[in-house]
Give the backbone structure.
Amino acid sequence: MQPSQSENLIEERNSRRAMLDQFGIYFLRDIGDVEAEHFSKSMLVMGSALRNYPGNRITVYINSGGGSVGAGFAMMEAMYKVKRDYGVAVDTVVLGYAYSMGAVIAQAGDKRSMGFFSTMMLHGGTWNIVGEDHRIFQDYQKLADLYKKKIGELFARRTNQQNPQWWTRYIYSGRDRFLSAQECLDLGLVDEVCEFDKCYIPSER
């Protein structure tokens, strides 16, 4: 029996993912539980494979509108585990946009880069709470405060600018803060931006 078109596409996708894993490359778009599981498995596979090749690095390319906070933190934990257990650096590159949790994950990179046309957006998370028991809202508030504290600390450490309280107020201001690549560089949210004249103008032959 000949494989169907869908089976061929699945096989082709899996083959492409395996090749990218081999070279330490991951493209991140959706941030949810299923993707977090696949991401974490890929990080461990790549970290294990690259540990015997000093100087090799994993690169996570981010083009994401955000997603689940919990799933995003799980992805970050996987990145940190690879660095800690295998001694393999993990870099993040924003290509297009990194909004909400995508911007947070970008901070987990050893080297954080951004394209000239790319943007980042910071804001407080949104929650859907169902129920009438006031304890539900108390538990939510406790969790929300924990996430605020953790994210404020993360941004303060990675940017070396301002303190965690400042970043908490900045991110959780009630606004969607859209930032250009240069603004991200000025705030310390990335380590380098590929300038237009350097990266997007064809070289003379």
